Amino acid sequence: MNQKNKLEKIINHLRDKNQTISFAESCTGGLLATTFSSISGVSDVFNGSVVTYSNEIKHEWLGVTNEILDTVGAVSRKCVEQMLFGVKKMAKCDYAIAISGIAGPNGGSELKPVGTVYIGVITPNGSSVWHCNFDGNRQEIQESSVSFAIEQLTMELNIIS
Known about the structure:
The chain is of the alpha/beta class. It has six helices and five strands, in the order αβαβαααβββα.
């Protein structure tokens, strides 16, 4: 199933259940929101999205604690967990996706090389965060992050792909 079909199935599933979704993005810079909003009818289920690129905005808008940002950093499981809960509260949605990572070509380190991305999904039944390592240039890492997030949401919704 191609990405457009997955998105249509996600949107129809959420619409049928009268549920909504929102996003908190960092390294993808709004690409996930752009990808979803390219599908007609998404306004029935898509509440909105925030691009929280800086640590200050992650803290102010989403409630990511300074302790998390100072100790494990924005590119971490704990940060993405807090991003998920923050955007869910802010947007009053049923589902949310959060993404934070290093798209490159700069910014990587030995512990967190370029391509390190954490992607989280929160549902009415709980939340999951995945640690990914994507290859490629900046755009490819961003696109891989969005594709992975869509795939994980498809699985969380038990949509057959």
